[in-house]
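Entry:
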Amino acid sequence: MRYSRYKSIVHKAAAIGIGTLLLASGLSGCTSGKKQEIETIQLSVWGDERSVPLLEEGIAEFQALHADEVVIDYTISLEGEDTCKDTILNDPEHAADIFSFADDQFDELYRAGVLHAVTEDADAVIEAVGGKDTAIADVVTVDGSVYAYPMTAGNGYFLYYNKAYYKDSDLKTLDQILDVAAKNNKKFTMDFNNGWYIYSYFQGAGLTLNLSEDGLTNECNWNAKNTTYTGVDVAEAMLAIAGHPGFVNLGDDGFVEGVQSGEIIAGVNGAWNAGKVEEAWGDDYGAVMLPTYTLDGDQVQMYSFAGYKLMGISAYSAYPEWSMRLAEYLTNEENQIKRFEAIGECPVNVKAAQSEEVQKAPAVAAFADQSEYANVQRVASPFWDAAGKFGITIAGQNSGNRDLQELLDETVTEITKKAEATTESE
């Protein structure tokens, strides 16, 4: 998922007073009569705006647990998951010690040599998310070594709906969802400007998008002519959806605003907005897996991307051991539950995901059901602009009357062009 872009320093814990207090405490507790040395370290942490209170609380708890070993003088700065990779690669040596990023950035960060391998408790980290055979273990593991801490599993999407308008039987097909919205002078929304979402239609049709082995190019057959469902079939289906009176093309902010205003009664979006939807709809809040859509006269299941958020350690950190210990704590079972409760992000830790607090949430159940029809996001960067440009044309009802096959050929050419290579810093 591509998040809003922002970066600024928001917190500085100078820790002079705290450090003095902890040091004095450590010295007075020494029974041997010898001075107990307590290390003072400086750590920088990056996270998004919603995570700042969680990071502050977690670091304070971690500090208390290790008060007789270390004084942490820390800085928290805002860095969105979408910008983290670019910011790091622009100046790797000045990256934060600990940073959060979306899993689709892992390959480039790893190839650039900026991720410190997890050398403490790596087996326990993987076991906590279900073991080495899970998708998330595959994401963070290279040649048997772990290079990031799994933090959330909620970077995917499903269908939100308002129970005041929809019965369970209405939610099976997108046709019915659109018809109910139009009948009530309301709207269903999905972001056609974003390749992350329109992937749903092509993958449902059996057309593929994959990252090549070189890690710099995509393999894509969205323009296929001789498959069971062709690229033109998908484009025509999307045009029909975009032209339906019950449809409106809105991005993330527009979705939330529409839910709050009452205009939107159903929409495809992610778990990060579950709290806002529930607040707006109250007891009428519902969430389920994606429906089918009409493709060349058939009903075809919509797919989705599934993604994770990870926490990494800079290869340039002056304190990698303490950074690893802190990152492991910030992504443990308890803190993943806290993150879910505070900002609605689904845990990837198995015990956290099975907790009562998490299991009773409609968004989590919807995400779990959709997971059968979801693929881990692995694409090179040229995909985003090319797919977004295609989606804008479709959302605009192809006002220029472009030949759909030519439009798809052009889109695939752009999707499959080579991305700029990232090399390891000297």
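The chain has two domains: 9-147+309-347, 158-306+374-415.
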